[in-house]
């Protein structure tokens, strides 16, 4: 019989106390379930004697945000723990340390990052993170390059594709990001005040063409092992440190999907600043910080990925053909822009939103922020296949904000 069951706070303490050598004898453990995400239980275990602490994340057999009517594979916990371990090897210091994975309880025991803050919350508070662009570009360049056909043995890659087949979590993305927002789906959720803008998405055939092309890439382009859900709620930060969490959506997909997620969530915060910073001058300054970060993330990624390719590329023809490298990087930029647009649109009209915008208490400011986000998102989608430079993303964000 399976040992799996959702843990209580008390059971989490009992399991934590058996973790070899972690808590000293005489520890006085307490446990609190702190999960604020859409899917899983997260227990924070602390020892009041030594001050040591850890995190236990357990998958539920359904999507917590909806309830038991939406069953969801527990295998996502295996994928998350294996991906965290791999990320720890490829991008040391940029993910939490995994202490243990329990395959029967679908439970990952990991480093407590409570001395960091979730980046989305920090940005809402107007905090700047000077190391973020450098760290996240290292994370994406290294995790994506070394799992792609450019940077790993191509036979081993095929086996890794198999180990990270993640159909149920991919289906969530395929539906919530690449389908529902573009039709009158019962999964959608949006403010009645922007119904006209939602309906415009349902009727825009040019937009549907671009989203269908991007969806096709998500479905078929096994370019590298993605994080799969790299939004600012999946990044813990301090001004000096960056740690990426929550890779349960990992699978082999198009590289631009991860980079686009980062950029989309910076721009969602850009739109939300309609409310969070009331002084117009300070808001413009913070928006410039956000667009500078978008530019830095792409440019640093581009430089680091090309350097890895130059120094450690394994595919002979691809590595020795400069025009192919330029073609490949241009395609990544265009994919990044298209996926960023899709990830913005889904957070305004789809099932799952972001607090940068949803928590705006003033309804007029919220509507303005939602319309701005939709205008930026749709422009990015419509322009993705023509884009030549990351500057076009910044021009779109600034010109829509000044409209
Ligand atoms: N390693 C960690 N250290 C501290 N807090 C964490 C850690 N991992 C998760 N959390 C907390 O739990 C919340 C939900 O975690 P997350 O992995 O995003 O869950 P979900 O997969 O359900 O979205 C995070 O927003 C954060 O507050
Ligand atoms: C029904 S899952 C919706 C949404 O939740 C995931 O985010 P998170 O795990 O960070 O809460 C993912 O973005 C899914 O699209």
UniProtKB/TrEMBL annotation:
Record bears the keyword Amino-acid biosynthesis: yes
MF GO annotations: ATP binding; S-methyl-5-thioribose kinase activity
BP GO annotations: L-methionine salvage from methylthioadenosine
InterPro entries: Aminoglycoside_PTrfase (IPR002575), Kinase-like_dom_sf (IPR011009), Methylthioribose_kinase (IPR009212)
Catalytic activity: 5-(methylsulfanyl)-D-ribose + ATP = 5-(methylsulfanyl)-alpha-D-ribose 1-phosphate + ADP + H(+)
Residues bound to ATP: 40, 57, 111-113, 246-248
Aminoglycoside phosphotransferase domain boundaries: 33-283
Keyword Nucleotide-binding in record: yes
Keywords: Amino-acid biosynthesis, ATP-binding, Kinase, Methionine biosynthesis, Nucleotide-binding, Transferase
EC numbers for this chain: 2.7.1.100
Residues that coordinate or bind substrate: 229, 346
Pathway: Amino-acid biosynthesis; L-methionine biosynthesis via salvage pathway; S-methyl-5-thio-alpha-D-ribose 1-phosphate from S-methyl-5'-thioadenosine (hydrolase route): step 2/2
Family: Belongs to the methylthioribose kinase family.
Oligomer status and interactors: Homodimer.
Role description: Catalyzes the phosphorylation of methylthioribose into methylthioribose-1-phosphate.
Designated name of the protein: Methylthioribose kinase
